[in-house]
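anyone else get weird line breaks when pasting these?? whatever heres mine. first is seq + tokens for prot A
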Amino acid sequence: MALRLADEGPAGWRTMEAVFAMTVSVDLARAVFLGDEGSTPVEPSASIIALVREHRERTARLGDGPWWRMLLSMTKSGEIEVDYDYGDEPFPDDHLFPPEAYRADLDEYPRDWLPLWLAAYVSHGDRQKRSPRHAAEAVRADRAAKVWSELTHNEFPDFPLMWARWATIAAAFVAVGSQWGPRVLPALGWFESSRRGGSTLYVLPGDRAVLSGGVWDAPSLDAAYNDSAGLPRLFAGAPDWVADPVLNPRADTGLLSFCYWWEGDRWYRGESPPAEQCATAVPGVWTAGTVTGIVAKLAADRPTEQQQRAAQMLVSVAEQGVVTRDALVHVFGDDGRRDIDSALYQFSLAGLTNALPPQELPEEQAILRVRQYIEAQGLDTTGYPLSELVADRFSIGWMVYVPGGGIGRAIFYVDDDGVLEHSSSSTAPLTFIAGFERRFRKRHTPAIWSPD
């Protein structure tokens, strides 16, 4: 078979690499020949594919059943290596057939057990998906059947601490330029581990959150797909906002093994395993000490006592929501070898930074800002000459107006961020300024990010 395939190669080849993916109903064959002139892809002929299919049928009589992929390599001198793939690891996307192709093969060659990812792929049937409509229907059904969620105790850290620690670990991995570790996106914490587990942490308005994901080869899913046990009811008693848009993508492939939701300052779950059984799919957010150790180890293979203290301080200020650039520099240094700015951005996305107050906006800039606003809005300036605009300073910005006139005359407020609000003399300046200052300080007060 290998020699026949070699005969189909170009002149001057030195090494051949080929892959065959196959079921009883479909197949895929690719070969590449490498030589002095580079690589040459060759599509194996129908006769070669027929030989490979015959070979697969013969191996099907062996104890492991037929292989799903065969990887073949050969040198010009005749050295041949063959590797059979029985699906222990997920196939590359371009080697993966539709589920029905594998189901047809299983009908022809029944197997007692399949790797979990493949078992889920061929039989999950979207049973873990939960559209908003389905979620609302499930809530009504749960209430009618008196199905309630389980309140957890001392398993995962409280959500505010978990969010801060997740962001801290993410920032540390980003600082050292590692592709591993968790990440923070707007309203989302994301994590994929080197052990094929992973999870997402979605932040919702109203101090709510959803943590979901999957561990590799989860026993409950293996029992469901390989032993015909029922799938765990991960959403039993869940509120209707626990739905597809905030679930880990593993729900799309039937590989979601846990789901927790945070509401009313507590974590809840349905038929999910305890937190300790989800550990390989979640970053090391368990304690402040755990996070400190991760950060310090990323900063240096052998962190000094000073680095340990700096890492501990970084975790502390993150949990308080007042991270500064200096806090990161104290851990990782600022010699250009570490990406401090991108690390700080992780904290910024998480809403955990203590931004420095903006510099005072110059008076002429405030007046220019108002003039541009009036012109852009096409406001009527009759009796309101823009050349006579003046600005009076207050605590965090400027009150800009044209002197004179009576009640209802336009007044503009511009803060040191450049934010402009339009009012009039009908509202007492002291009253308006109080609210204006409150809104300014709210923007500059660190808090866990919320879309509220």
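and prot B, same format (seq, then tokens)
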Amino acid sequence: MSQKNHEGKKSARERLQEQREKEKARARRGRQAIVAGAVVVVLAVAGGIAVWASSSSGKPAANDNEVAVPKRASGGGRPAVPVGSADAPSTLTVWEDFRCPACRQFETGFRPVIHELEDSGRLKSEYHLVTIIDGNAGGQGSRNAANAALCAQDAGKFRAYHDLLYSHQPPEPQDKFGDKKYLLQLAGKVKGLVTPAFTKCVNDGTYDRFVKKSNDAFATSGYRGTPTVLLNGRDLSKEKGGQFGPADLKKMVLDANKAKQPGKKSAAPHTGASPQDKHPGRSAAPQGELTGKGGAPQGELTGRSAAPAP
């Protein structure tokens, strides 16, 4: 075989080998492209799930440190519920417990004057709800009643339900307010209050943490018992040697408001219950007076449920 023919055959074999190598290379690139495409698809699908999950989850869940705040209530270090015109020139600050007998005496005796001053735009009240009796006597009635009152605040009916709770306050050793069914039953006396939202709020204890925060604020306030009542920052139990009655409160407010414009008058809320609706077996205090244990009118801000000693 001539040298020329040998080189020709070799070149043909080399060309065939090169062609085969090229085909193998193309096949490898094709397989890599398919695998790469599959990876891209998987990542795209996974990314779609992540985006959908995060966008469909809505608002982040509340953590254990967050405190739900009722409508128009104030949170902060001293949670409170406002009643009356926000721009009223005088402010009544009330720390009280729904199971506290002395608080009921205060509410029964001073309520007509407080309502009159609130409705005329001369006074706004700020209620701080505490749970002293739960701590002293056991039970959950102070907390549950406070939560229910805050649920009523969401419905714009705090004052009506607040007053109703005091009118139906059980004897201090009894924890009847610990029964949420009873609290809902009482709410039926306030027109339009019982709704699915209110019922759920009461049963879920939506504002239990708000109540606890308020009680914690009271524990560090330096006040020793309930009711603690202040007018424009002045402790009324220290006025007139403790002989302070509803007429004195009205005079003090009017004196403080001289030369000041009243706030926007607030219409007296409809309670849906008779003003004379009383707890069975209890007599009402004479209007504008407080009642002592024997039922004799005292007409003064005396008697408190003591907070536990620190």
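btw re prot B: The first helix runs from residue 3 to 56. The CA atoms of residues 180 and 199 lie 9 Å apart.
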